[in-house]
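Lab channel / #folding
Pinned by the channel admin:
"Please post every new chain as: sequence first, then the structure tokens as a reply. Keep commentary short and put observations after the output so the thread stays searchable."

First post following the new format, from NK:
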Amino acid sequence: SLINSSYLETKSQVVTKDIIAFLANDYFQALKQIQMVPLSAKVYFHQSCSMKNQLKTQSDCLKLLNLIPCIEIKTFSQSSCCGASGNFMLTHADLAAEIAISTVDFIIEQNIHLMLSTDISCSLHIKQQLAEQNYQLEVLHPVSLLYRQVLIKEV
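Reply from TO:
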């Protein structure tokens, strides 16, 4: 078993850690040793409200993304909330769409075709708002991009 039952019996709480913080703080030195495939692309890194206000992992995420050679990371300095806010995009769709306008305009103006976000509601909402403008882009979790860029050598 992956979980030591005696540990759980003696501890009242199990500590969890965000995957970004885990990789950036506990495994960063090991990740620096891995050869990554260069990515010659402009990538929009969406910093969700939960990432900025609760998790506070935006600098950890940028540190990890910068392990990818040639990556050009764009962040939207004006960005506050994209309007998704969990299920807000469902319960207040018109207002959520209005809130997303500045983020959507930034992505289109920068001609970005890959967006990274750790927040699924932000990802779905922004992608939907862009689709309504007939603009297509790929959306990934930052860890998915890191995995994709790992250079796997055949044995």
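NK: The chain has a mean pLDDT of 85.
TO: also worth noting, DSSP finds nine helices and four strands in the chain.
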